User: Which sequence fits this backbone?
């Protein structure tokens, strides 16, 4: 009874029902929502955030955070633009862009693990640093001419479907992250670090090494997102993706990842992605501006956290009453 009730009352289940309800409402009452073009654009618009949320989940579970993700995306986009302007072939420029993302993430990781600085403070600083480097490299200008192979990737769909090519990197990486987190030793160590760092350290887990490489992975994935963003908009400039970090953190927390670390699954995060994408798209089709959309998403996060807390308390009481049926007598 209790395990079945636990599954029914899980946060993942609640998010799934909420996302499906939002999809049904939009399909029935929002004109143009079900058009192939709109579906393709809605998916493409979440491609970069969907990518960045993957390493963000691992970092938050390990009691860390990376506020510089959007700035790393912008910096790698600028680097790709400059390499393209210099007529460097994509076969060379893309590995260089990925390497630059790894270096940026490694810089964050080194400051956190070697100097013992809080990741919140470090990445708050590098959020401005990396974006400033983008302005130093490119200034207020932008690069808008790219090879056909890159722009075709950014605007074409897979076969005759509504799925854009820009979502493919996420579709490839999401199962890898899920399997690594739920079914490997490194995933168990990440949960252990977030659950109780002191216990994890005494258990022989190399906290500093794992945390460092989590930041490196974050930088690499942000570089992939930078390539996707540049291809999708055919635009490389230093102010790309402003504010993305807030949406990514919102999606992670809305998906059930505990801000205190040690808890959460990617399943809930995927449903949170669907929910946020649906709400933003439906509001956009209803002529609701970006600022108002942000307000709705923020309210959704607050309400969802309150509901999650209430549901957890309710289930704990039901479980306690089953274990100790006469405790209140």
Assistant:
């Amino acid at each position: 009874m209790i395990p079945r009730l636990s599954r029914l009352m899980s946060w993942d289940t609640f998010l799934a029902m909420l996302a499906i309800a939002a999809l049904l409402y939009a399909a029935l009452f929002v004109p143009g929502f079900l058009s192939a073009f709109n579906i393709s654009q809605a998916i493409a618009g979440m491609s970069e955030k969907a990518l960045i949320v993957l390493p963000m989940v691992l970092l938050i579970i390990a009691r860390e955070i990376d506020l510089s993700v959007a700035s790393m995306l912008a910096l790698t986009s600028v680097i790709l633009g400059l390499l393209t302007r210099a007529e460097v072939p994509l076969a060379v420029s893309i590995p260089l862009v990925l390497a630059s993302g790894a270096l940026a993430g490694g810089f964050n990781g080194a400051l956190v693990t070697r100097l013992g600085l809080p990741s919140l403070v470090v990445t708050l600083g590098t959020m401005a640093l990396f974006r400033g480097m983008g302005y130093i490299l490119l200034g207020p200008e932008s690069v808008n001419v790219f090879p056909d192979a890159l722009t075709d990737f950014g605007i074409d769909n897979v076969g005759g479907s509504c799925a854009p090519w820009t979502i493919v990197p996420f579709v490839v990486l999401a199962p890898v992250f899920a399997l690594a987190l739920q079914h490997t030793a490194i995933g168990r160590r990440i949960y252990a670090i977030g659950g109780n760092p002191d216990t994890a350290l005494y258990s022989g887990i190399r906290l500093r090494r794992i945390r460092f490489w989590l930041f490196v992975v974050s930088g690499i994935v942000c570089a992939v997102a930078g390539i996707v963003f540049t291809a999708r908009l055919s635009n490389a400039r230093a102010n790309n993706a402003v504010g993305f970090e807030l949406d990514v953190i919102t999606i992670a927390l809305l998906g059930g990842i505990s801000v205190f670390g040690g808890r959460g699954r990617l399943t809930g995060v995927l449903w949170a992605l669907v929910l946020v994408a649906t709400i933003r798209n439906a509001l956009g089709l209803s002529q609701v501006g970006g600022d108002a959309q942000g307000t709705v998403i923020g309210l959704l996060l607050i309400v969802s956290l309150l509901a999650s807390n209430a549901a957890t308390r309710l289930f704990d009481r039901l479980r306690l009453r089953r274990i100790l049926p006469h405790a209140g007598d």
Residues 37-241 form one domain. The longest helix spans residues 290-323.
